[in-house]
């Protein structure tokens, strides 16, 4: 009986870990482990059924992504479709740093000296 309890505890911990990897499609900012939405409850039950059927974690996540798309994965894998998701913030940061550098570098440049004609014109305007 102790082994059955340990197996149940292990399956519950595994189900919880899987539920924390999947996004609630209703709430979208919560995992299905944290969500109380009816769909999240159904997805947690689906995870429990698949664990009971002997499916691996990879098989369960694959089933969920096949059915609901990669959006359900809370931490999506790095691939061609998620490139901007993963690299976008760094690209924006680099672009902002480049713009800031150009602005600062532009301010540091000394203005070009006035030509003789510009000096004469400035004197006439100031008189």
The helical percent reads 55-70%
Judging from the principal axes of the Cα atoms, what is the shape? rod-shaped
Q: Compute the separation of the termini in Å.
A: 105 Å
User: What structural category arises from helix and sheet content?
Assistant: mainly alpha
Q: Look at the structure and name the CATH superfamily of the largest domain.
A: Cytochrome C biogenesis protein
CATH-defined architecture of the largest domain:
Orthogonal Bundle
Query: Under CATH, the topology of the largest domain is which?
Result: Helicase, Ruva Protein, domain 3
How many whole angstroms does the radius of gyration measure? 30 Å
**What is the number of helices?**
5
In total, the number of domains comes to 2
Could you list the spans in which at least 5 consecutive residues all have pLDDT below 50? none
At the first level of CATH, what is the class of the largest domain? Mainly Alpha
- As a percent range, the share of strand residues is under 5%
The total strand number stands at 0
Summed over residues and divided by their number, the pLDDT gives a mean of: 86
Q: Sheet with the most strands?
A: none
Descriptive terms for the model:
single chain, 127 residues, mainly alpha, Helicase, Ruva Protein, domain 3
Description:
With 127 residues, the chain is mainly alpha-helical. The chain folds into 2 domains: 2-72, Orthogonal Bundle (Helicase, Ruva Protein, domain 3); 83-126. Helix content is 66%, strand content 0%. It contains 5 helices and no strands. The protein has helices spanning 2-21, 38-52, 57-68, 83-108, 116-126. The chain is rod-shaped, with a radius of gyration of 30 Å. The model has no long low-confidence stretch (mean pLDDT 86).
């Amino acid at each position: 009986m102790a082994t059955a309890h340990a197996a149940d505890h292990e399956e519950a911990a595994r189900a919880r870990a899987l539920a924390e990897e999947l996004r609630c499609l209703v709430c979208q900012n919560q995992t299905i482990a944290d969500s109380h939405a009816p769909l999240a409850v159904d997805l947690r039950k689906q995870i429990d059924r698949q664990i009971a059927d002997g499916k691996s974690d990879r098989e369960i996540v694959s089933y969920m992504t096949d059915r609901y798309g990669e959006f359900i994965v809370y931490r999506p894998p790095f691939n061609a479709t998620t490139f901007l998701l993963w690299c976008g913030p760094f690209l924006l940061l680099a672009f902002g740093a480049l713009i800031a550098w150009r602005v600062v570098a532009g301010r540091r440049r000394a203005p070009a000296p006035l030509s003789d004609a510009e000096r004469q014109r400035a004197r006439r305007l100031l008189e």
